[in-house]
Amino acid sequence: MGDRSPRQDSHRSRSKKHDRNREPRDGAEGRKRKHREEDTERGSSYRTRSRERGHRRRSRSPTGRDFSRDRDRDRERRRERDGHRDRDRDHRSHRDRSAERDSRKRRDDGDSDNGGRDRRRRHRSSEGRHSPSRPSPPREARSDSQRNLVKHRGPLPSQDDSFAVSNGGEPEKPKEKPNFGNSGALAAASNSVTQADGTTITLKYHEPAEARKPSPRDEWKLFVFKGEDIVDTIDLGSRSCWLVGREQAVVDLLAEHPSISKQHAVIQFRYAEKRNEFGDKIGRVKPYLIDLESANGTMLNGDKVPESRYLELRNKDMVQFGSSTREYVLMLAPRA
Questions:
Q1: Where is the composition biased (Basic and acidic residues) (predicted)?
Q2: ∠ Cα 99 100 102 (to 5°)
Q3: pTM
Q4: How far apart are the C-alpha atoms of 269 and 252, rounded to whole Å?
């Protein structure tokens, strides 16, 4: 080993030179390798980070598996909560039902106790009723007694009334209370006529508030016919009311036939208003006929007039009183 050949020395020197020359190359390559490894590490970390971000994004998205799991979990929680509520509600309703059942049972027990007492009382009363010493009353008498026992919702009657009913009599009628309404005596006194002999005649008719005298332009006249002859002509424009009858002291138009009543009928002029096609009020005084509930009635153009009711009279209307053959024709003179 100590003896080396010059060739080996030269080879060794060359390899040393080569190693010296290779050292910087290996250092650069190592540095490059390190850089590459660092880049790969950075890339892998970036990739893992991006994967994590994508995983988070996917977990936030509504279509992710985690979202479906959470939703199923929420549904299960809701079901459990609803189940707890239903159980609480059922427990409450069961508790209320049991309390109601207990109260009903207590009430029935109390009623049964009272019912036993009532049954004992009824039994004793039936024993006394069916005893041979007291015979039962007949059905007719029982029904009469039941009829007399009337249930009163109001106050109980007095003792006298109850004794009267039990003895078969009638209770005393209550006294009539004072009546402060209008009796009509004052109106009759104000519408009465005193005769010379001191007797008074009460008028059956009072003029209404709408009574008016006819207009001077309307000349209403009443022609009295007996057969074909004119017996009398009466100008009706002088007053608003014409009382027809046999009572000479009070009537305005005397009719002496025996079938005519003392105060038979009235020809009354009344003011009546109507509206025209434009809505304006048009007032006019017109004659009306009213029967004062006479015995034989009043006829208008052959038809009987209803009692105590106004009927409008028109031009050329014919009126008959009672069974009299006289005809009273109403005429309106034409305007000039």
A1: 1-12, 20-44, 66-117
A2: 65
A3: 0.45
A4: 14
Query: Over the range 299-336, which residues count as b (16 or more CB within 10 Å of their CB) and which as e?
Result: bbeeeebeeeeeeebeeebebbbbebebbbebebeeee
Rounded to whole angstroms, how far apart are CA atoms 73 and 69?
Answer: 6
Q: How far apart are CA 336 and CA 289, in angstroms?
A: 27
**Per-residue confidence of the chain (336 residues) as pLDDT tens digits?**
445 555 555 555 555 555 555 544 556 677 777 777 777 777 666 666 666 665 555 544 455 555 667 778 888 888 887 777 777 777 777 778 778 888 777 777 765 555 555 556 665 555 555 445 555 555 555 555 555 555 555 556 566 666 666 777 776 777 778 877 666 565 555 677 777 788 888 888 989 999 999 998 999 999 999 999 999 999 999 999 999 999 998 999 999 999 999 999 999 999 988 888 888 888 899 999 999 999 999 999 999 999 999 999 999 999 999 999 999 999 998 876
Closest by alpha carbon to 271, among 261, 281, 259, 280? 281
